[in-house]
Amino acid sequence: MSKYSNSALVSVLLLFLGLGVSLAQDFDEVVLSIHTVSGNVSYIEGRGGNIGLFTGDDGVFLIDDQYAPLTDKIVTAIRTLSNHPIRFLVNTHMHPDHTGGNENFGRMGTMIFGHDNVRTQMEIAGYAEQPPLITFSEDMSFHINGETVHVLKVPDAHTNGDAFVRFKGSNVVHTGDVYRTTTYPYIDVNNGGSFLGTIEALNLLIDISDSNTKIIPGHGGISNVDEVTAFRDMLVVIRDRVAKAIREGASLDQIQSGNLTAEYDERWDGSGRIGGSASMLAAVYQDLMN
Ligand SMILES: [Zn+2]
Fold first, then answer.
1. CATH number for the domain including 143?
2. From the CA of 158, how far away is ligand 1's center (Å)?
């Protein structure tokens, strides 16, 4: 873990804490909405990452839990679909907009799962939230509510603890922030993320999906394999442009100011603070120079 320096972790923590503080005033105004996906799988949109929700007689299964101040609203939303216990919660990765409710759900008796690195990175970052109590290195399966739910570690992408959650019967995949339909990939290099790994992880997503698969992104609306393929293809184009610029002797500054992503920037919020073009290009550069 010495690979991830404390100062870098502090800076990323400040980024998220800063975000948390600015949002604190208006958590009261957040309105949650539940979107049906397929079968008994749905997702809750609110503030932070999309919460996957799977209901049935064996109990409620959740994917991610947004911010702690939203837990009561999240439980109220869940109760419109199921009165069964909220038994299982999987964290797709360690970021606070996906794990902020852990402490609250843990107190309610929900068992929290995540990749080994989710627990490790949350502990290093010193988050107050409860890290997963049960961790896995490669994958694990839940056999509940009449179907198999496969949770699998993917190549290091958004962080080094990313997992996809795949509902084999309902043909749904929740991708965490490896795939977001709102911005370019945000590569958290201080928590082991990788741009090249993101391309590999998207290749895996394409492999395990078919034309009917419903894909729940970490942020944004429901997607499908055609959109993921187009997104992956864009990242390959960007990778190749950065590689060419490096071969021609360009510095990172020159790459970031070289309009390498110009035609994509409007759609993918290229000037955004999280998931913008400059930070993505820095991650591409770092991967290609290593
Ligand atoms: Zn994230």
1. 3.60.15.10
2. 7
